[in-house]
Specification:
Layout (H helix, E strand, L loop, with lengths): L1 H47 L2 E5 L6 H12 L3 E5 L2 H10 L8 E4 L2 H8 L4 E2 L4 H6 L12 E13 L30 H14 L1 H13 L9 H9 L5 E5 H8 L4 H9 E4 L10 E9 L5 H11 L2 H11 L2 E2 L8 H4 L14 H15 L3
Parallel strand pairs: 1-2, 1-3
Antiparallel strand pairs: 3-8, 4-8, 5-6, 5-7, 5-8, 5-9
Helix pairs in contact: 2-12, 6-7, 6-14, 7-14, 8-10, 9-10
Length: 363
C-alpha cells in the first residue's frame, strides 16, 4: 500500500513537471509569434509607405505612368499638385520635417530657383547617368532633366519662306514689318532674351527687341496657342512658340486647333552656331527625404524608355533618354541642335532681360 502511494505521488510530480514545461514552451511560442507579427507589420508598413511626389507640371498620361511604376515596383505614389512657386514655398516650410520625396519642376527657371533655395540633395546613379546626357543634368547633380522643348519660330506655310528665318535675329529685319505676332511676356520669352544677353550682350539684345516690336502686327497678347490660331486666321504670318504647343494642336481632338496647326510650319533657328533655345522639365530629390531610395527609383523609372515615351506622346515634349521613341508628329519636325541647358546664368541675366524687354516695348 505504501509502495502504491509512492508511485502515485511520483506520477503526479511527473505530470506537473511536464505540464509546466509544455506551458513554458507554449508561452515562448506565443511570445515569438507575437514578435514575429510585429516585425511583419513594421516591414509591411515600410513597404506600403507611399512616395510623395510634388508635381508642378501637368502630365497628360500621369495615370498610366504612375500605374506602370506601381506595377513594376509594387510602390505607390501620392501626388501633391500645385504651381512651382506654391510647392517651392511648401518645401521651404517643411525643410525640418520633409513631407515630399521627389519634386518635378515645369521649367528651367523654376528648377533653378528651387536649387538655390537649398531644397535638394544629389540625385545621380549609374542608371540615371546611362539614361541622360551630361548636358541634361545639373552640373552639381541636384536635378535631372525629364523632357525638353524648343522655343521655335512658326510661320504660315503659304506666305513665308522658312529659309528667310534662319535665326532669332532675322525676325527683327525690316522686311518682316507688320508680319509678326507675339504672346504676352512669359517666362519662356524672358529666358530666351536672357540667353541672348548672355551670348550676344545687352546692346545686341535691345536692338533685337526693338526691331521685333517694330515688326508687330498688334500688341502682344495671349499665349502660344493663340498665336497659332491667329496665324491661321491671317492675323500675322510669323511668331515664336514652344514646340510642344504646336505638337499638341497637331494632335488635338478640336478640329479648329488641328486645322490651324496644319497651316503653319516650324523652324528650329540658329542651327549654324547659337542653336535653338531650349527649356526643360526636371526632377529633384528633396533634401532629407523620408523615402529616399524609393524616390530615386521613381526618378530612374521616369527616365526609362516606357515612361519617357508616355511623356512624349502625351505632352509632345522631347524625351531626354535617346533610347525612347518620339511620336511621328515630332519626328516629322526633323533633327536639330539645342543650346546648353545650364540654367545657372538665369540669376545673373533674367532680371536684366526683363528690364531690356520693358525698355524695348515688349510687354
Amino acid at each position: 500500500m505504501k509502495s502504491f502511494s509512492m508511485i502515485l505521488v511520483f506520477m503526479c510530480l511527473m505530470f506537473y513537471s511536464s505540464a509546466t514545461v509544455m506551458g513554458q514552451v507554449k508561452a515562448d511560442k506565443t511570445k515569438n509569434e507575437s514578435a514575429g507579427a510585429k516585425v511583419s507589420e513594421s516591414e509591411a508598413k515600410e513597404a506600403d509607405q507611399k512616395i510623395v511626389l510634388y508635381l508642378a507640371k501637368s502630365w497628360a498620361k500621369e495615370k498610366e505612368i504612375l500605374s506602370l511604376f506601381e506595377k513594376e515596383t509594387g510602390k505607390s505614389v501620392s501626388v501633391v499638385r500645385g504651381t512651382a512657386e506654391e510647392l517651392r514655398e511648401r518645401l521651404k516650410k517643411e525643410s525640418e520635417d520633409p513631407q515630399a520625396d521627389l519634386f518635378v519642376a515645369p521649367d528651367g527657371e523654376q528648377i533653378f530657383l528651387a536649387k538655390y533655395s537649398d531644397l535638394f540633395e544629389p540625385l545621380l546613379t549609374g542608371t540615371i547617368r546611362s539614361r541622360t546626357a551630361d548636358e541634361l543634368r545639373d552640373i552639381d547633380n541636384l536635378w535631372v532633366g525629364l523632357t525638353y522643348w524648343v522655343r521655335g519660330i512658326v510661320y504660315v506655310k503659304d506666305l513665308v519662306n522658312p529659309s528667310d528665318l534662319p535665326t532669332y535675329f532675322s525676325l527683327a529685319a525690316p522686311k518682316f514689318k507688320g508680319r509678326i505676332i507675339l504672346a504676352a511676356v512669359n517666362s519662356d520669352e524672358i529666358s530666351l532674351v536672357a540667353t541672348l544677353v548672355k551670348f550676344y550682350g545687352t546692346s545686341a539684345a535691345i536692338d533685337w527687341i526693338k526691331g521685333l516690336v517694330n515688326n508687330l502686327v498688334r500688341p502682344t497678347a495671349g499665349d502660344d496657342k493663340k498665336q497659332i490660331l491667329d496665324l491661321a486666321s491671317n492675323t500675322g504670318q510669323i511668331s515664336i512658340v514652344n514646340s510642344y504647343v504646336l505638337g499638341r494642336m497637331q494632335n488635338s481632338p478640336d478640329r479648329k486647333e488641328k486645322e490651324a496647326a496644319e497651316r503653319v510650319g516650324l523652324v528650329f533657328p540658329d542651327q549654324s552656331d547659337f542653336a535653338a533655345h531650349a527649356n526643360i522639365s526636371a526632377a529633384a530629390l528633396v533634401l532629407n527625404a523620408k523615402n529616399k531610395d524609393s524616390a530615386v527609383r521613381l526618378a530612374e523609372f521616369l527616365l526609362s524608355p516606357p515612361a519617357q515615351e508616355l511623356l512624349a506622346s502625351g505632352d509632345f515634349e522631347f524625351p531626354v533618354n535617346p533610347e525612347a521613341k518620339i511620336p511621328p508628329t515630332m519626328e516629322a519636325w526633323g533633327k536639330f541642335k539645342f543650346q546648353d541647358l545650364d540654367f545657372s546664368f538665369l540669376g545673373a541675366y533674367q532680371n536684366q532681360a526683363e528690364v531690356l524687354m520693358n525698355q524695348g516695348g515688349w510687354k
